[in-house]
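Sharing a chain and its predicted structure for anyone who wants a worked example. Both blocks are below, sequence first, C-alpha cells second.
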Amino acid sequence: MPMQKSKSSFDINKSLQTHSTDDTDYGQDFTRLPGGISGGIAQLIDAKIGVYKTGANTGKKFFRAAGVVVSPDTATEMVKTLDERGKVKVVSAKEVPVKGLQTSVMVPLCDTKKADGTVTTADEGVANMLNELRKLAGDEFTADITSEEDLLGKLEALKEAKPHFRFGTNAPDPTPQYPTPRVFERWYGAKGLEDYVSDNGQMVEDSTGSAAEPFNEFGVSEQSIEDLVAAADNNDEAGNRLTELALEAGVSQAQIDKAKSWSAVGELITKATGPAPSPEEEEAEEPEEEPAAKEEEEPWQPAVGDVYLYHPVDPKTKKPAKKAVEVEVLTVDKRKEIISAKNLDNPKVKYQGVKWTDLESASP
C-alpha cells in the first residue's frame, strides 16, 4: 500500500503576520574596547550591587558600573603577538568604531587573593567603590552613606543623573605568561564635564547591551560564557574573548591550544573559576608535595626568511671574521641543524652549512 502524504497544517501567512513586527534581536555583541584610548568620554548607564554566581567568591557581593562611549568615534586597535624569538611584533593596526560600546569598572566587595598571594580585603573593596562614586558625583556624594540601604539609594540617584565622565584604556604588550593580554579600563571621573552635552543632548545608544547576570569575579556571566562558546566557531571576537577569560582564570596557553573545541575551553574556564572548597574540604585534602611538571618549551630554530647576524669564515685564516654581516635564511636542515643563507648587502654571496649556533640576533 503506498504511503499516504499528510497535508501540512503549517500556515506561513499566519506566521508572517505574527512575527513581522517582532523586536529585532541583534544577538550578543562581543566587541570590546581596544587599548590606547586616551581622553575618552562616556555617559553612565548603570551602577549596581551584584552577587557572584561562579568562582571562588560565589555568593559574595561586587559593585559594577557601566557607561556608554560618547567620544571618540573610533580608536586604533593594535594587535600584537610574540615572534619565535619572543620579540613583540605588531600584527595589525586599524581604526575601529568605539562610540556606543560599553566601558565598565568592577570592584569585589569581599576578600580577594591575587596570583602572588596578596589579599585585597572587603574593607578595601568598599573604599575603592566609594572612591569610584565620588569620582562620578563629587566629594560629598558618599558623605551620608551609613548603610547598604543608603548606598542603594545613591546608586539609583546616580543612574538617574547619567553623568558624563572621562576614561581611558591600556593594553600591555604580550608576554610568554600572558600572550593575549587583557585591556584595562580606567575611569577618571566627571570633574570638568559637569556641563558637558553630547549629541545635541540625546544619549548615545548602547550598541553592546548589558551582559547577563550574575557575574563571576572576571566580570563575565555564566550565560556569557555559553554565548561565547556558541559563537566562537564563526566569530573571532568571541574566540578571542574566550581565550582572554581562560588566561585570566589561570588556564595556560598550552591547555587552550590542546583543547579540542571552544566548548572544551569554556569548560576549562568554568572549572578554573569554580566554587572554592570549604574549610572542611581543604582540611580533608592531602597536600601534594610533588612539584607540577613544567611545560616543555619548543627549542628555538631559524626559519626561512629570518634575518640574522653572521661572522663568515675567512678562507685564509679559517677563522670567523670580526665584522658580522646580515644574512637571510634560504634553507633550513633541521636534522643537521644547519642553514644556507645569502648576504643582504651582496645577495650574490651565499653561505652553506652554517650552524644554528653561529647565528646572532639581528635585533638591536
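Comments welcome. The first strand starts at residue 40 and ends at 51.
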